[in-house]
Design goal:
2 strands; mainly alpha; 357 residues
Length: 357
């Protein structure tokens, strides 16, 4: 029972870190364009992240049972997966580098599952067809392909939407444009925060649901469970309401803590923006994330908003984007999956060597 509660606690620590690590995704553009103060932006982001986190479970189900063979998942596997993601998130946060909490968690889960299966690659669901749903699932369609497509779509979408706005507003006075889109950006920031909650918070929901399912079906920890702890019992994989609420509140708390290093990178070091640019970037990113959530794709909100900001900046001129910063971000994106997988693999193998797992 202690191990189960410890894994749930570590999962919530990951969710909290995810909240302050990815706060920049939702509010960096609002802060950089001076539409909101940092405090106002964090309050808005916190509220709408919370609402969004309660909006569904499609992404949670993908994380919990769609990427790896759950027959090889133990509580220690989940623990090492979370620790791998936490280590990488804290490192990238410390150096102010936007990276994907989603891919950190997924990489950790894959690495830990691989260690649990003694290196059998078949434990990873690479490309699986679900006849009941009539769709493909697994790492390729749900993670790898979107990882490459999302920032590209963000760049193109941001460029296209900003181009339309520039053409439409070509005769408008700058102060009028700033006034209109200063208000409009409040709406786009709220939508971006909501969509972030619908996608990112669900990932930890899936991990906790997997923890409860694993503990119920593979251990005797819930034998003679006291009535007041019945809510932990999960003979089938599902996301209980209390898991939704707990993850939503935890992410909201993390969001409230802020992530100032990454906010500066995303909002000021990447592209210099006015309110109309912030509106275009946030609207593009929110629309992409909402579509991904509908299909149960655990998308990197970091990749999407970064791509959207690049596209918006490029619509001004290519030199408006600070490509040296983009290069640093791309390196983190490419390294996240293999590094977190490696960390989780080594952690679990270390536990095996010590006879703990």
């Amino acid at each position: 029972m202690l191990l189960i509660l410890t894994v749930i606690f570590v999962a919530l620590v990951f969710e909290y870190i995810n909240g302050f690590h990815d706060t920049a995704n939702a509010i960096a553009t609002s802060v950089s364009t001076r539409v909101m103060t940092p405090r106002q932006a964090i309050v808005l982001s916190t509220v709408f992240n919370l609402i969004g986190a309660l909006a569904g479970t499609a992404v949670a189900k993908t994380i919990g049972k769609g990427l790896v063979d759950t027959n090889f998942i133990t509580l220690n596997t989940i623990m090492c997966a979370l620790l791998g993601g936490i280590i990488w998130n804290l490192l990238t946060w410390w150096i102010g580098l936007p990276s994907s909490s989603s891919h950190a968690l997924i990489g950790g889960l894959c690495g830990a599952a691989l260690a649990s299966a003694n290196g059998r690659w078949s434990v990873l669901h690479w490309n699986v067809y679900d006849a009941a749903k009539g769709e493909w699932g697994g790492l390729w369609p749900k993670v790898v392909a979107p990882m490459m497509a999302a920032p590209t779509i963000g760049i193109l979408g941001g460029f296209f939407i900003m181009g339309i706005l520039l053409f439409t507003l070509r005769s408008a006075r700058p102060w009028i444009v700033n006034r209109i889109f200063g208000k409009a950006q409040l709406v786009s920031a709220a939508w971006m925060s909501f969509s972030h909650g619908t996608n990112d918070a669900q990932k930890t929901m899936g991990i906790i649901a997997l923890t409860l399912f694993t503990a119920t079906t593979k251990t005797d920890a819930f034998t003679n469970l006291p009535p007041w702890l019945d809510f932990l019992h999960a003979p089938t994989f599902h996301v209980p309401v209390w898991v939704k609420v707990t993850c939503a509140i935890t992410m909201a708390a993390g969001t409230a803590a802020g992530g100032w290093k990454i906010i500066q990178t995303m909002g000021r070091n990447l592209v210099k923006m006015q309110p109309v640019h912030g509106f275009a970037a946030q609207t593009t990113a929110a629309a992409i994330i909402e579509c991904a959530t509908h299909w149960g794709i655990p998308l990197s909100t970091t990749h999407v908003i970064s791509g959207s900001i690049m596209g918006v900046g490029a619509s001004k001129r290519l030199t408006a984007v600070k490509w040296s910063v983009v290069g640093r971000m791309l390196s983190a994106w490419i390294l996240t999956l293999p590094i977190t997988a490696g960390l989780a693999y080594v952690l679990l193998k270390g536990l095996h060597a010590m006879g703990i797992a």
